[in-house]
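Researcher: Watch the backbone:
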Amino acid sequence: MKHHIHINIGSNQDRRKNIAQALNALRLNFFDLVCSDIFESKAAGFEGADFYNIGVNATTDLSVIDVLSVLHIIEDNQGRDRSKAKFSSRIIDLDLVLYDNIIDKANNLPRDDILKYSFVLAPLAQLNPNGIHPLEQKTYAQLLATKPPLQSYNISVLKF
């Protein structure tokens, strides 16, 4: 059975290279990838370089747990250091934001960052403007309208 997922990729270290590597790894593990523009944002919760974030819609036959495992493996392969503080610079950060429309508190689905951070919501709303947040029962476009805008770049302009 095919499941529809949305992944948020973030990096504030060698951003283009690390996001390009993550996208290549996602293409090897998931199907039907569609990418948002790149959104640039200030570091949240710490002083650091600006982040690039990109949203990716994909399909998979994997379970939630297996998708999370694949994302952790990709991060580890790119040198993600999990011993650092939660709010710190990142080589790469891959977050499962949505898995179909399931509500799974144990695995933070839908990811609570959707409602907290524009850098998660903006790519999601760009790819799924009419999608309905499973808990809020509002479209992602409606939710985004309440947030300050972010600088965005078309992915082709950055030539990944």
Remarks:
- The longest helix spans residues 15-29.
- Residues 76 and 82 are 9 Å apart (CA to CA).
- The chain has a mean pLDDT of 92.
